[in-house]
Specification:
The complex is a heterodimer. By secondary structure, chain A is an all-alpha fold. Chain A is built from 13 helices and no strands. The longest helix of chain A is centred in the last third of the chain and has 34 residues. Chain A is globular, with a radius of gyration of 22 Å. The termini of chain A are far apart. Chain B has one domain: Helix Hairpins. In chain B, helix 1 packs antiparallel against helix 2 and helix 2 packs antiparallel against helix 3. The longest helix of chain B is centred in the last third of the chain and has 32 residues. The N and C termini of chain B lie far apart (60 Å). The chains are: A mainly alpha, B mainly alpha.
Chain lengths: 324, 117
């Protein structure tokens, strides 16, 4: 039954993808991308990837849509030109697709427990997590501790991308010097979205914090929580106008968050060296190595959450400020 | 069921190539970025599909006896890749916005024409 549901979702996904490429209205394409993200997220859930489904739903269907829409507001909504070399492109793509599909016949069957990917290092992680780290969520354990170096690298990529957007678009003219009528008022004059928003936003924030600090025990962690909290504040900015959002979280604070997150993560790594261990070795953070691991993961997840929130909000405000 | 066992991989191949088509054939820069996002999504699907184990459940210990867990490693890789993906897409959109301001267009061939003048 679940398999049939998965096939149904994936078929819808392919249809949506074709519609995205065929439509000439970019606004429609972005909206369909949101639907595609939601379909993928649902499918990830069927494939036992609860953490990934949460991330994809928050990032793909939420924040990515808002960013594309704010970029469209600054450029144009319609594609002007016809595609170039349609027949040649289609031939290349179709041939490559056929080769890829031919290659799939050599892949292990879907869900095969004997597949090479399942027998390599994965059992080690599943077996050793209770012993070394003793938290229920293995994904968080691998992300935060076993592969902490990777995650530190990813945090720096997010950081760099955020700085890059701020360099390209700048943070805009200071709000104080703007003429009154040009300041974006959001949906402040529309009653129903405001009321609904006021009811929803506190709960979205609360859920974000829960996902952040419950990440060791259930699906969640810094990446998801950062995206959810950023989504809540972006919703606030859309409803109440950007100025009010910026008075809640001023630009200086946002830039501070962007820098503070990676620094916090790095500081935990350096603290490991200072206390006599290796870089990002959390075992030395506490007298009991297991407690040290848990403490280290909690702090670096906070660093990840702060970085992701700061970068996503900074990017959103950079786009919004450009429109004034 | 043997044939259906590969369905996820076929969707991966088709989705990947739909995204790739948008990147090479479309001239609108935003559309190219949308295509790139689809391409990324297809790769995510491939990884998560490979991590699934028959009869498995999400890799979170719940304290009850013998449970088969799906593979946590691909999930970790894709979890971070999604957030990195949105950051790099935002960077691409930033470049597109700047191009629009300088050239007044987000169509690839129009920008090239202005450059050649």
């Amino acid at each position: 039954m679940i398999a049939i549901f998965g096939i149904f979702l994936l078929t819808l996904l392919v249809i949506t993808a074709v519609a995205i490429v065929r439509t000439e209205n970019l606004f429609v394409a972005v909206m369909l991308m949101g639907i595609a993200s939601l379909l993928i997220a649902a499918n990830f859930f069927l494939l036992d990837a609860a953490d990934v489904a949460l991330t994809e739903a928050a990032v793909g269907a939420g924040i990515s849509t808002v960013l594309f829409l704010s970029a469209l507001a600054l450029t144009s909504e319609r594609e002007r030109a016809k595609s170039s070399n349609r027949i040649l492109s289609f031939a290349v793509v179709a041939a490559a697709a056929l080769i890829l599909i031919y290659a799939t016949f050599d892949k292990p069957r879907f869900g095969d427990p004997e597949a090479p990917v399942q027998t390599h290092v994965a059992p080690w992680y599943l077996e050793k997590t209770p012993e070394y780290i003793d938290i229920p969520n293995v994904v968080t354990a691998v992300l935060g501790s076993f592969r902490g170096y990777d995650t530190l690298g990813e945090v720096f990529v997010v950081f760099t991308a955020g700085i890059g957007v701020l360099f390209l678009l700048g943070s805009g003219v200071p709000l104080g010097s703007m003429p009154r009528e040009k300041i974006n008022e959001g949906l402040r004059h529309h009653l129903i979205p405001r009321v609904v928003g006021r009811v929803l936003i506190p709960f979205i924030l609360l859920f974000g914090l829960y996902v952040q600090f419950h990440g060791e025990y259930g699906p969640g962690g810094g990446f998801q929580a950062g995206a959810i909290i950023a989504a809540a504040i972006i919703l606030f900015a859309l409803l109440e106008g950007e100025q009010r959002a910026l008075s809640v979280l001023p630009e200086r604070v946002l830039l501070g968050l962007v820098v503070f997150g990676p620094l916090l993560y790095g500081a935990v790594g350096v603290a490991g060296i200072v206390l006599g261990g290796n870089f990002l070795d959390y075992s030395v953070l506490s007298a009991d190595p297991v407690k040290g691991q848990q403490l280290g993961i909690l702090i670096i997840e906070a660093g990840v959450g702060v970085t992701v929130t700061g970068v996503l909000l900074g990017i959103f405000h950079a786009f919004a400020a450009r429109g004034r | 069921m043997e044939i259906l066992g590969l369905y996820n991989y076929w969707v991966f191949a088709i989705l990947l190539m739909i995204g790739f088509y948008a990147v090479i054939a479309k001239r609108n820069l935003v559309k190219k970025l949308i295509g790139l996002s689809l391409f990324q999504a297809a790769v995510f699907l491939l990884y998560i599909t490979m991590g699934k184990v028959d009869g498995g459940t999400a890799p979170i210990f719940s304290g009850t006896g013998d449970v088969i867990f799906s593979n946590p490693l691909p999930q970790v890789l894709i979890l971070t890749a999604i957030v990195v993906g949105i950051s790099t897409t935002a960077l691409g959109l930033g470049i597109v916005v700047r191009l629009k301001e300088e050239y007044g267009s987000i169509e690839e061939h129009e920008i090239q024409e202005i450059d050649e003048r």
